[in-house]
């Protein structure tokens, strides 16, 4: 099967606009009446639900930011009674004000639907064996792919992330035809496969759906060659729904967005002006079917562009280009979203080192590494080595339990981290992606 839902995936622009208008009007009414935060914001802007008649009126609505989700943590933006929420996910980071997202039963159904479209466009069907090697848990990757795979009737192998040897054995023994993981893990799997003496022909693998972090065309080529598969880019973010917000078709020329659920815009992130199709800028989403956590003009901070031309695959759904960067300083390290400010808070909390630090991110054997250099205070510097090691261990432990990523921590001599007269340079990203 080529499409999962041909009606919506190949709808004429005219019809799609009609669907979007109707759904947008309903969403705006709902959030105005059910979410005080949105009501206040709209009132401040002088907009009422009645002012929103078509998607042309989107620009009258205020933007929503990640910070708004943090400020209203955990459930302040939910638009239904909590008893209607059947699932909660959260973005990376195990403590503090992470972004919490909630789904009603219908939202879970919508998620399975958009993921079913994604997997079908990657060539999967009820005959497929889908190995889900994204993490299961609060991260949306594992369960998102899982529900989509069940929806199309494939056989799901819910192995979750890690344990590479087992992944390879299962891939071979269970006859996996599609793998879902981050592109960097796919590279690592390819390498380990060769190392373990497996040949491409030993596997039934045909395709992979890779996302959750940026990756390049050259990385795609390498994965495709080494694993002998079609490598499909899939995009998503927890706030909007998780994976399933956009995905490539076999043409590999942009990721189709299920516009009957999510309306994209591209804006200039400084002037907030909406840019015409084809322009590069910040991607903004409005959800028009979500019940638990509807989002109005959500600023993703991801840089992309939109192409409304009909695709060779027959889909009319708009395509977003590969994400080429971010407008903020968020890093994605082994699939975990990390803001340098989170690391800074950990250091300040521990209080035994100076708040001068440098994050060095690299990719070794296809796996991201993080090294944190932290300046010692003069006191500690004159202390014994054992104490220095104790502090390093403490910082490492705290980073791991707060952010959920492992890091190498090194205390360096006072005044050795370069001071800046302008914006401090906190990150050196050596990864060639
Ligand atoms: O990463 C959801 C997901 C899971 C997508 C599995 C695809 C596959 P978050 O943890 O909320 O959600 O992180 C969202 O990850 O704003 C982008 O910066 C980045 N990102 C996600 N997919 C891609 C991609 C999931 N294909 C953030 N290319 C987003 C580049 C991506 N960046």
Brief digest:
The protein is of the alpha/beta class.
CATH topology of the largest domain: Rossmann fold
- Strand arrangement, largest sheet? 4-3-5-6-7-8-9-14-13
For the sheet with most strands, the description reads: 9 strands, mixed
CATH superfamily of the largest domain: ANL, N-terminal domain
Strand content: 15-25%
Principal-axes shape call: globular
Q: What's the helix count?
A: 12
* Rg for CA atoms: 23 Å
The domain tally reads 2
Q: Structural class, from helix and strand content?
A: alpha/beta
Please give the share of residues in helix. 25-40%
Q: Which ligands does the model contain, each kind named once? A: 5'-O-[hydroxy(phenylacetyl)phosphoryl]adenosine
The CATH class of the largest domain turns out to be Alpha Beta
Distance between the terminal alpha carbons, to the nearest Å? 33 Å
Characterization of the model:
With 433 residues, the chain is of the alpha/beta class. The chain has two domains: 1-326, ANL, N-terminal domain (Rossmann fold, 3-Layer(aba) Sandwich); 331-429, GMP Synthetase, Chain A, domain 3. It has helices at residues 6-9, 13-34, 36-44, 66-71, 105-121, 140-151, 164-173, 183-195, 217-227, 340-350, 378-381, 385-403, and strands at 85-90, 100-104, 129-132, 155-157, 178-181, 207-211, 230-237, 242-248, 255-256, 262-267, 281-287, 298-304, 306-307, 319-320, 325-326, 331-333, 336-338, 353-364, 367-376, 408-412, 427-429. The protein has a nine-stranded mixed β-sheet with strand order 4-3-5-6-7-8-9-14-13. Helix 5 packs across helix 6, helix 8 runs parallel beside helix 9 (217-227) and helix 10 packs across helix 12 (385-403). The chain is globular. It binds 5'-O-[hydroxy(phenylacetyl)phosphoryl]adenosine. 5'-O-[hydroxy(phenylacetyl)phosphoryl]adenosine (DLL) is lined by residues 91-92, 134, 140-141, 211-214, 233-238, 242-243, 300, 302, 323, 326, 332, 337.
């Amino acid at each position: 099967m080529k499409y999962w839902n041909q009606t919506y995936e190949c709808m004429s622009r005219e019809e799609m606009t009609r669907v979007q208008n109707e759904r947008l009007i309903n969403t705006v009414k709902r959030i105005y009446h059910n979410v005080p935060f949105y009501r206040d914001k709209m009132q401040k802007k002088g907009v009422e639900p009645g002012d929103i008649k078509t998607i042309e009126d989107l620009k009258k609505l205020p933007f929503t930011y990640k910070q708004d989700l943090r400020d209203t943590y955990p459930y302040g933006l939910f638009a239904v009674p909590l008893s209607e929420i059947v699932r909660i996910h959260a973005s990376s980071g195990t403590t503090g004000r992470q972004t919490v997202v909630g789904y009603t039963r219908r939202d879970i159904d919508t998620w399975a639907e958009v993921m079913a479209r994604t997997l079908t466009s990657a060539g999967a069907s009820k005959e497929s064996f889908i190995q889900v090697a994204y993490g299961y848990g609060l991260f949306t990757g594992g369960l998102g792919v899982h529900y989509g795979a069940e929806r199309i009737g494939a056989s799901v192998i819910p192995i979750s992330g890690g344990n590479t040897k087992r992944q390879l054995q299962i891939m071979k023994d269970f006859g996996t035809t599609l793998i879902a993981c981050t592109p960097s893990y796919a590279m690592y799997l390819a390498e380990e496969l060769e190392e373990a003496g497996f040949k491409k022909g030993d596997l039934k693998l045909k395709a992979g759906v890779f996302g959750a972090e940026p990756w390049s065309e050259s990385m795609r080529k390498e994965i495709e060659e080494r694993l002998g598969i079609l490598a499909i880019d899939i995009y998503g973010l927890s706030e909007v729904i998780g994976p399933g917000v956009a995905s490539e078709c076999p043409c590999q020329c942009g990721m189709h967005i299920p516009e009957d659920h999510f309306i994209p815009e591209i804006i200039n992130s400084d002037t907030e002006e909406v840019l015409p199709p084809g322009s590069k800028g910040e991607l903004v989403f409005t959800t028009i079917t979500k019940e638990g956590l509807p989002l109005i003009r959500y600023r993703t901070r991801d840089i992309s562009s939109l192409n409304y031309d009909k695709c060779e695959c027959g889909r009319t759904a708009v395509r977003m280009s590969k994400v080429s960067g971010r407008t903020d300083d968020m890093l994605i390290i082994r699939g975990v979203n990390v803001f340098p400010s989170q690391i800074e808070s950990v250091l300040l909390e521990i209080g035994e080192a100076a708040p001068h630090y440098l994050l060095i991110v690299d990719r070794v054997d296809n796996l991201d590494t993080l090294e944190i250099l932290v300046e010692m205070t003069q006191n500690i510097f004159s202390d014994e080595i054992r104490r220095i090691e104790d502090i390093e261990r403490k910082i490492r432990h705290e980073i791991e339990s707060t952010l959920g990523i492992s890091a190498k921590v090194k205390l360096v001599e006072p005044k050795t981290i370069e001071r800046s007269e302008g914006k401090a340079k906190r990150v050196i990203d050596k990864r060639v992606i």
